[in-house]
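Box 3.1 A note on notation
Throughout this textbook, protein chains are presented in two layers. The first layer is the amino acid sequence; the second is a token string describing backbone geometry. Keep the layers aligned when reading.
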Amino acid sequence: QVQLVESGGGLVQAGGSLRLSCTLSRPTFSNYAMGWFRQAPGKERGFVTTISMSFGSAYYADSVKGRFTISRDSAKNTVYLHMNSLKPEDTDVYYCNAMRAGVDYWGQGTQVTVSS
């Protein structure tokens, strides 16, 4: 059974930093990507960033470019989201995502709150 276990998140002041981590427990996967989405109450879940676990190529939403960095430890099936220069508008529930062969898997979500 595929499971995504997230950690990190919490409350931080504007301008501060947080790190999220997500570990994928799964049967042997190849050619998959992991990343993060975020969602506010009453809004659609939106893309934040993704990284190829095989090749390391990463993509970011324009709203987080230059502030957020995704990294991976393929041996541990783990990705990290380093969030710097946080803004109040970054307040959301952040969901870890794994995608392989067109199938999405989701974590339970972790709350990030940025106070002004």
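The chain has a mean pLDDT of 94. The longest strand covers residues 92-100.
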